[in-house]
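Action item from last meeting closed. Structure (214 res):
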């Protein structure tokens, strides 16, 4: 077995084992631990704070690599569909690095849980992050309005999380905390077993991600 050294977006060189089979290099994916993945997210967010564009790898080479050899994301991110919240940019990530699940209000139901279960069980992701944000329209709708239609399914779930809370930022945090609890309970994730699950809040104006209980 040989090794291949490729330059990552942070300028460090990652060493990946390589097997030569019939003259073709086959890369062996090594999933990051939860702590390594969290560190990578935090470092990516720090670079994003002063960025004017996303330097994540979206090159033809990485498209070809992930097409031929599949994906190996290092973290699962469940976040809001808000157009101002772009996880790949927020964490300075490129193609194949994040498994992103988006839904208004970053609420959890069976569809989102199935996506988490797939990424953790079949792709080997060891970190799940529920990423809420301030100035969230879904949270505002739950606090101040009584929407009908299918939107009500989202706001009802948020209301279960926030109760009578009227402060928008605090409500966003409570909503994230409920989603974290739903993931752990529904997928029966015990402390120290399976993927680590944590919550975070993205501040739209500053670009900073505040990790809760970290």
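Sequence:
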């Amino acid at each position: 077995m040989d090794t291949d050294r490729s330059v990552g977006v942070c300028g460090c060189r990652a060493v990946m084992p390589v097997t030569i089979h019939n003259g073709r290099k086959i890369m062996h994916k090594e999933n990051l631990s939860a702590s390594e993945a969290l560190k990578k997210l935090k470092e990516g967010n720090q670079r994003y704070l002063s960025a004017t564009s996303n330097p994540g790898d979206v090159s033809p080479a990485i498209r070809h690599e992930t097409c031929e050899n599949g994906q190996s994301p290092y973290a699962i991110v469940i976040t809001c569909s808000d157009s101002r919240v772009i996880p790949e940019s927020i964490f300075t990530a490129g193609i194949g690095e994040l498994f992103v699940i988006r839904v208004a209000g970053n609420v959890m139901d069976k569809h989102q849980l199935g996506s988490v279960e797939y990424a953790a069980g079949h792709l080997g992701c060891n970190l799940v992050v529920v990423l809420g944000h301030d100035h969230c329209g879904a949270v505002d709708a739950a606090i101040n309005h009584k929407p009908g239609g299918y939107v009500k399914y989202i706001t009802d779930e948020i209301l279960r999380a926030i109760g009578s809370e009227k402060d928008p930022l605090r409500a966003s945090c409570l909503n994230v905390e409920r989603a974290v609890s739903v993931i752990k309970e529904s997928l029966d994730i015990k402390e120290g077993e399976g993927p680590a699950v944590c919550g975070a809040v993205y501040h739209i104006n500053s670009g900073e991600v505040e990790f809760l209980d970290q």
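Note appended to the action item: The two ends are 38 Å apart (CA to CA).
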